Amino acid sequence: MHRNRTLIRGDNYIEMQHLSDASVDLIATDPPFNSKRDYFVPFRDDQGREPDTLVKAFTDTWTWGDAAAEAYDALLMEVGGQVGDTMEGLRKFLKETPMMAYLVMMGIRIVEMHRILKDTGSLYLHCDPTASHYLKIMLDAVFGTKHFRNEIIWHYQMGTAPKTAFGRKHDTIFFYNKSDKSKFTRQSKPVVNPARYKFTDEDGRKYDVNGVGKRYYLDEGQTCDDVWTYVQEKQYQQLNPQAKEKTGYPTQKPVELYKRIIAASSNEGDLVLDPFCGCGTTLMAAESLNRHWIGIDLTYLAIGAVNQQFDRMFPQHRDSVTIAGTPENAAQALALAQTDHQGFEEWCITHVLHFKSNAKKVADGGIDGTFRFPIGKVKGKQEYGRVVAQVKGGSYTLGHIRDFRTAMQNDGADLGVFVVTSPPSSGMRTEASRAGIYRHPFLNMEAPALQIYEIQDYFEGNLPTLPFGERSLL
Ligand SMILES: C[S@@+](CC[C@H](N)C(=O)[O-])C[C@H]1O[C@@H](n2cnc3c(N)ncnc32)[C@H](O)[C@@H]1O
């Protein structure tokens, strides 16, 4: 049995294996496109102007290595049939290139998606012309050409035009059914220019006259075809003001785009899955149409962003999201620290402390996360104090504490949190106490400026002593 409103932090290939055969009604997903780029989340400066920090959200660069070779073998040996033949053919042509690595990574996941879909289910796979031609061949192999329904062109206006080619202004969304029993409800789009319908008949219905005869303006709009233009996107934006929807997560898609998909291929109460959920566009669309949903993403940053976005868009259901795949007790936290250093750091910074993660492109100077808090106005301008954090998932020494104190000084931070997995020695405590005591200018609050925080304390409900402030992920 699935649990509605579940977010899973993990690799979707592994996580989808935990879902039963034929258990999902609709998969609507937007995986990385093999764009050969890293995607960053810009943090604005204090006045919300230029980005001053870039936090890596996810990488979309692929190389052929052991993981790709293993996935390729699995597609040939375990899946075999048409899928194996297709992969073999693609490899002959593409060789062991980054594109082939990307395709085998997608191939093993598309096979899983097909397995977990119900017979009445459908898949919508969002991609772009970088790899869409190869992905369609793979989708044909897994779902069968007779279950291909549409290649939807989503035409948008953003971006610049190249000098040597026409502007590249569309994404492709492939729509496949699991079987001939799949659900579909026709969708309508608003009429682009209702002013054209200038006549009104005796029943009060508006119409236009063209060469063939009367053309009625339908209140519900025109039936959607497979080209979804930016005109509609503008209308989407009018329906959903950007301010409410925009999270700053790179590659975020409009909720209305996914609402159309979900309305067309599922019913109320159905289960919608997005295994590459990013900041949760599919999930927000599913919630607003009373569908159940599960989202999976590899990064804590994305999972945190979905959780925040959900609370913002559906405050009436605040705190009803279940987050799986994150440590639930001290033993799991320690295991994460041992097996996935970066994941542990990201979890401590974004989930435990609710600081901004500092996974910068350039060297971070020993600071993994930051947080600021208001300390009053000077000449009408808000001033902020600053807290920095460093996470040490393994063993640490007195020298590490000293270096962190220096990093705090270099940064101009008022407070520092040094997150550890084992208790400090008395010498380390003394070293930390050399940073002194921080006193807030107007709150009745004082605390050691450098706090060594054992992650075990988190599971006992204790957090470092810090002033109130702006904690957010994005
Ligand atoms: C193009 S973005 C999705 C954006 C999303 N549609 C939105 O509107 O926010 C792709 C996402 O897939 C995630 N991802 C990449 N590989 C993954 C994997 N193996 N398992 C789960 N998530 C993965 C990335 O972290 C990224 O958030």
Count of individual domains = 3
> Helix count, per DSSP?
14
Shape: globular
pLDDT average, as an integer?
86
- Spans of at least 5 consecutive residues whose pLDDT stays below 50 are 43-53, 235-243
The beta-strand count equals 23
Strand order of the largest sheet: 13-6-7-5-2-14-15-1-16
Q: What CATH architecture label of the largest domain applies? A: 3-Layer(aba) Sandwich
CATH fold-level assignment of the largest domain = Rossmann fold
Based on CA atoms alone, the radius of gyration comes out at 26 Å
Biggest sheet character? 9 strands, mixed
β-strand percent reads 25-35%
Ligands in the model, by name, code or SMILES, are:
S-adenosylmethionine
Pairing-aware structural class of the strands and helices? alpha/beta
CATH class of the largest domain: Alpha Beta
CATH homologous superfamily (4th level) name of the largest domain: Vaccinia Virus protein VP39
Structure description:
- The chain is built from 14 helices and 23 strands.
- It is of the alpha/beta class and 474 residues long.
- The protein has three domains: 6-186 and 226-324, Rossmann fold (3-Layer(aba) Sandwich); 188-223, no CATH class; 330-460, Trna Endonuclease, Chain: A, domain 1.
- The strands form six sheets. The protein has a nine-stranded mixed sheet with strand order 13-6-7-5-2-14-15-1-16, sandwiched between helices. Strands 17-18-19-20-23 form a five-stranded mixed sheet, with helices on both faces.
- Strand 3 (37-44) and strand 4 (51-60) form a beta hairpin.
- The longest helix has 19 residues, at 98-116.
- The radius of gyration is 26 Å and the shape is globular.
- The chain starts with 5 loop residues before the first strand and ends in a 20-residue tail after the last strand.
- S-adenosylmethionine binds next to helix 1 and strand 15.
